[in-house]
Amino acid sequence: MTVKRDVTVPARKYDFIQIWRGIAVLLVVYYHFSNRVPQEYLGMDSDPFLVFYSGKLGVLVFFIISGYLIAKSLSHSQNLARFYAKRISRIWPLFILASLSIFLFLQFFEPPVVPSGPKKFFVEERDGLDLFGSLFFLEDLGFRWMDGVFWSILVELKFYFWIGLLAWFRPRSFARDFAILSIAMSAIEMIIGLSEMRFLGPIGSGLNGFFIAQYLPYFAIGVLLLTNKHRPLLSIVIILALAQALLKSAANPDFEAAGTAIFTLFLAACLALDAALLQSRLFLHIGDNSYGFYLFHQIIGLTIIKALSGYLSYQVAIFVALVATYVLAVSASWIAEWRFRQFFFDRLMTIFTLLKMEKLQLARSEK
User: Fold this and answer.
1) Which residues, other chains included, contact 117 with Cβ-Cβ below 8 Å and sequence gap of 6+?
2) Checking phi first, is residue 117 left (phi over 0); if not, alpha (psi -120 to 50) or beta?
3) Are 13 and 347 in contact (CB under 8 A)?
4) In contact, 362 and 171? CB cutoff 8 Å
5) What pLDDT was estimated at residue 10?
């Protein structure tokens, strides 16, 4: 599948972004395949040779990239209706197909189940009500995701919602204001999280749930990188983002520095070989299909690995799952993402026009 390039981004910069998307999704996928579920629950006798210990790092890279590209999208959107319609139609068609595919998959295959502990996984079966909740991003109302990885898509949507409102309300300074708000809310959330005052817990939950406070610095990094202004603010949000990442790493009981270093060196070698032999085409292709790969990989891939136990080594089973879920993701993207995006965009524009949102004009991004 050939993915249409965003013409608002220069070719070299676009390739750089896509390569980093490929890196980010591989960090997430490989973590889930090598370390998300204990090897005994997959029927394996030992861990794979290569293990990655921090899949959320890949998600945070995605959030930084998203901050940059969404700020760019705002500068090319005439009004709030077009901005929201464009962003939602980019996400929703493939998300619907992934949710439906995983629901059908679970009717015939049984994924690994980890009933308790810090790596508890798929304890409760999914039903039609969960499918409905997933299709309409209703996790905050108590619905279970069809696949746990879907949580970050809702975070993305909340980011679109807040920065879109801010760009309409404060068109001349939305990037600066977004960074300031990110700093304030993220700092408050960290202070609450580090304190032992239980009565502050609901405030912290609200900041994270409604305002995605712990992830705002990562989005803000991307937004400020686009504007190329407000460098003191950029420095502050980078420090806060690092602090958030360190806190999460410290809370990870099975993080292993040596294993992480080995995996990182292996990934760097793959990047170098791809650049030397294929002009980075492999990582570019993975980056172009990173969204679909992210949506489809976890439950289906881990089920494949479990099914291959007793036949292949864990490391080889991971490779098979990587290839199988990537081919599935590319096929699904070909079916849904580029064929139904315009249909969704047109319907969403009709709804937003009825709500008079086309009258909410957006100014150009800060330069």
Assistant:
1) none
2) left
3) no
4) yes
5) 63
Mean pLDDT lowest among 3-17, 71-85, 259-273, 319-333: 3-17
Contact present, 301 and 149 (Cβ < 8 Å) = no
- Measured distance CA(16)–CA(298) in Å, rounded: 26
Angle between the N-to-C axes of helices 11-31 and 257-278, in degrees from 0 to 180, rounded to the nearest 10 = 140
Strand (E) positions, the chain? Answer: none
- Residue with the two structure tokens 């090897």: 39
DSSP letters for 192-228: HHHS--GGGHHHHHHHHHTT-GGGHHHHHHHHHHHHT
266-291 burial: b if 16+ Cβ within 10 Å, else e = ebeeebeebeeeeebebbbbbbbbbb
pLDDT tens for residues 331-366?
999 988 768 999 999 999 999 999 999 999 986 545
* 3 state DSSP class of 309: strand
Longest pairwise C-alpha distance within the chain: 61
